[in-house]
């Protein structure tokens, strides 16, 4: 399976999702002035328009030409919006033009709002603690589909500015490398005063070669690495792709990334009872964190009951608070920055690791 290939047959070019350079090149290729590409870029990504008719500084014949010659501006259709009564977390259900469904989540926090976007329909990696992995993989999302999650959420969220974006929804972003990077290049144009690449985080379970490739692009986005264990055998049981891209190989790639980009890595650590919350887990994690610039997000394991899990996934239980708290405090006592991401959105199956569509 070529994970970089989408199975969509398009009769018209879908220019929604093109970067600024690609839009300029497109207009040049169809006999128009290159500056039209910048105008359309601004309408797509700054003004978030839904129709070529709204592009007021384009001549009407050009607007009609674009409407006839290119694909839809709206690459997604909003199906539903669900709000958590407990936390205010909002989960969006979107449908793609070919009928697949994906989810995105808005996480309201003090002084900032974070949008969690998806990069694939499902996920091929089968991580045992993740509902998306249990649903399987359908296809990659395009850069336009990645961006439109931001567009819809921005328009819907009562005019409040989204200040952070995390590529932590459905899918493994680095297995959809081309489209993920294309979307990052769109955001790199500083679309709003608040949103910058330094406020964007790409989460990965560890595709070492792609971590290095991303570092060499010099985008300097933040990386969140799904660690979950410092022991190769345990990590391979939780994250099967670890058998192909070992933890050692990934840590070497992360070291390169931190040096090349001068950024700090975030280690995501889902705490699972009896699996990665032992004393030996603490000492190996401490040793790793002392060796490179990093911080840790500790996440109590969230239930997968809505997926009716089987096998090892069905055996997983969250570490009890009386084990999480001393684990975290011991790390903090050694001057490791640790944030505990207590569950937000679990009542609507929108918490970390819970996103999944059963009907795709």
Overview of this structure, please?
The protein is of the alpha/beta class. The protein folds into two domains: 20-69, DNA polymerase, domain 1 (Orthogonal Bundle), CATH 1.10.150; 76-348, Aldolase class I (TIM Barrel). The chain contains twelve helices and twelve strands. The strands form two sheets. A ten-stranded mixed sheet has the order 1-2-3-4-7-8-9-10-11-12, with helices on one face. α1 (20-29) crosses α2, α5 packs across α6 and α7 (208-216) packs parallel to α9 (247-261).
Quick gist of this model?
By secondary structure, the chain is of the alpha/beta class. 34% of the residues lie in helices and 19% in strands. It has 2 domains: 50 residues, DNA polymerase, domain 1, CATH 1.10.150.530; 273 residues, Aldolase class I (TIM Barrel).
Q: Key features?
A:
360 residues, alpha/beta, DNA polymerase, domain 1, TIM Barrel, two-stranded antiparallel ribbon, 19% strand, disordered N terminus
List the helices and strands and how they pair.
Layout: H1 20-29, H2 35-46, H3 60-69, E1 76-83, E2 90-96, E3 101-109, E4 112-116, E5 120-122, H4 131-135, E6 137-140, H5 143-156, E7 164-167, H6 177-187, E8 200-204, H7 208-216, E9 222-226, H8 232-238, H9 247-261, E10 265-271, H10 279-289, E11 294-300, H11 312-315, H12 321-333, E12 338-340
Parallel strand pairs: 4-7, 7-8, 8-9, 9-10, 10-11, 11-12
Antiparallel strand pairs: 1-2, 2-3, 3-4, 5-6
């Amino acid at each position: 399976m070529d994970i970089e290939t989408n199975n969509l047959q398009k009769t018209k070019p879908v220019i929604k999702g093109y970067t600024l350079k690609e839009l300029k090149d497109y207009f040049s290729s169809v006999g128009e002035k290159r500056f039209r590409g910048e105008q359309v870029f601004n309408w797509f990504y700054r003004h978030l328009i839904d129709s070529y008719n709204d592009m007021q500084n384009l001549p009407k014949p050009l607007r009609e030409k674009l409407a006839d010659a290119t694909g839809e501006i709206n690459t997604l259709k909003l199906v539903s919006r669900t709000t958590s009564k407990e936390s205010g977390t909002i989960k969006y259900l979107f449908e793609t033009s070919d009928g697949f469904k994906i989810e995105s989540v808005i996480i309201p926090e003090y002084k900032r709002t974070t949008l969690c976007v998806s990069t694939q329909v499902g996920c091929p990696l089968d991580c045992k603690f993740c509902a998306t992995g249990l649903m399987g993989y359908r296809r990659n999302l395009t850069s336009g589909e990645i961006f439109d999650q931001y567009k819809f959420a921005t328009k819907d969220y009562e005019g409040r500015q989204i200040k952070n974006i995390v590529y932590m929804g459905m899918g493994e972003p680095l297995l959809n490398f081309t489209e993920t990077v294309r979307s990052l290049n769109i955001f790199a144009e500083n679309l709003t005063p608040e949103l910058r690449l330094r406020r964007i985080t790409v989460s990965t379970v560890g595709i070492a070669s792609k971590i290095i490739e991303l570092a060499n692009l010099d985008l300097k986005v933040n990386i969140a690495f799904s660690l979950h264990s410092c022991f190769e055998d345990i990590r391979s049981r939780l994250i099967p792709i670890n058998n192909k891209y070992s933890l050692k190989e990934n840590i070497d790639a992360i070291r390169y990334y931190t040096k090349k980009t001068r950024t700090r890595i975030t280690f995501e650590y889902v705490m699972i009872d009896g699996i990665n919350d032992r004393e030996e887990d603490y000492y190996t994690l401490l040793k790793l964190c002392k060796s490179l610039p990093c911080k840790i997000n500790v996440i109590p394991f969230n239930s997968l009951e809505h997926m009716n899990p089987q096998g090892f996934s069905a055996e997983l239980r969250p570490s009890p608070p009386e084990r999480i708290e001393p684990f975290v405090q011991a790390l903090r006592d050694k001057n490791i920055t640790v944030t505990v991401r207590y569950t937000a959105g679990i009542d609507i199956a929108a918490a970390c690791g819970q996103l999944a569509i059963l009907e795709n």
